[in-house]
Amino acid sequence: MEPCQTCSRRKFLGGLLTACGALSGLAGIARAGGGPLPDLSQALRLKIADYPLLAAAGGSTYLSHDGGATVLLINRGQGSQFFVLDPTCTHLGCRVDLYEVAPRQEATQGQIACPCHGSAFAIDGRVVGGPAQADLARYSCRFADGFLEVDVPGLVFGVSALTPVRSSSGEARVEMTFPSTNFSFYRLRHASSAAGPFLPVNFALTKDGALNQTQLTGNGAVKRIYAAAPGAQSFYQLELRIFELT
Q: What are the C-alpha distances in Å from 1 to residues 67, 75, 232?
């Protein structure tokens, strides 16, 4: 089966980890503020406003960044409380259903049900009914300023090298190197200021290639892409596509 056949909506995750480079006449590259490039991260950064199912207490959704190989069950509690879970039932490995609240119940008094054998879990993944005996695995997360950061083991995302180059015709470009993940999808944004706005921009797969690529598919290998470097300064964001699964 092709990856993401079950994706109902596709969203780009902006600013997950920003590869910001300020180019000055190709003399060199420095991160905005003069510091080094950011370290590679294991945190997905989700803008909650992009996910209507998480707008209110009791909301629940599945998300994946790699076509379904890694699925997160995200439940919203009261206020700014979120629970990010592995939806694999601890009984025999079925995927549990989304969190549901019965009529006349409080938002945090519903349950997550396993459709295979009837196990039940609370909004935070605690087992409340067998045959499962253990809680759902839980991911560490933080919520602030409208963004939810989720620590995902094994996720490596970010630009590891940002280098000014010139094409054979003398065009100023920037080469970006980054590790990719299987079945992941990436897009590039550009701005003339660190404050943005960052808008989608095409890129090339070689130093002299046509700037006609809008998306890159990851396969577990290190990738290199090339973007135009217009003006005295150019700032870039590498984005990882997030899928909302049905």
A: 11, 28, 46
CATH class, 7-41+156-245 region: mainly beta
For the residues 184-209, what does the mean pLDDT come to? 89
Which pTM was predicted?
0.82
Do β-strands 185-191 and 235-245 pair in parallel, antiparallel, or remain unpaired?
antiparallel
Count the Cβ atoms, other than its own, within 10 Å of residue 51. Answer: 19
pLDDT band at 2 (very low <50, low <70, confident <90, very high): very low
CATH of domain 46-151: 2.102.10.10
Please say whether the beta carbons of 47 and 240 come within 8 A. no
Cα–Cα distance, 148 to 84 (Å, whole number): 10
The owner of tokens 């690529």 is: 213
Q: Identify whether the C-beta of residue 22 lies closer than 8 Å to the C-beta of residue 235.
A: yes
Domain ranges for the chain: 7-41+156-245, 46-151
Assign 91 a pLDDT band (cuts: 50, 70, 90): very high
The predicted model gives 45-63 an average pLDDT of: 92
* CB of 82 closer than 8 Å to CB of 148: yes
